[in-house]
Design a protein that fits this description.
Layout (H helix, E strand, L loop, with lengths): L2 H21 L7 H9 L4 H6 L5 H8 L6 H11 L11
Helix pairs in contact: 1-2, 1-5
């Protein structure tokens, strides 16, 4: 899958996750977060730290735990190219 298509898929997944949180349902495809991290060839610690998230919480997000709305917003902006690595904490 091309990087642009992956970003669009992740953005759609984050939107679906937010809608599911509002309706009280679980995430439908948590592997999209892992795929994005793996595409960047980064460890969980490095990837998630830029969003202010610990490695253990990032691992839980990648396996199905709902992402808190502030983190989901940052992820969406990052995936859509509106935030860069330099804009986020490392």
């Amino acid at each position: 899958m091309g990087n642009e298509m992956m970003c669009e898929a992740l953005a759609a997944e984050i939107e679906a996750q937010h809608a599911a949180q509002v309706l009280g349902r679980k995430r439908s495809a948590p592997n999209e977060l892992r795929r994005l991290r793996m595409a960047k060839r980064e460890s969980q610690e490095k990837f998630w730290s830029r969003f202010g998230v610990t490695q253990s919480s990032g691992s839980r997000f990648e396996t199905g735990l709902s992402v808190p709305p502030p983190v989901a917003i940052l992820l969406r902006l990052y995936v859509n190219g509106r935030l860069s690595d330099g804009d986020l904490l490392e």
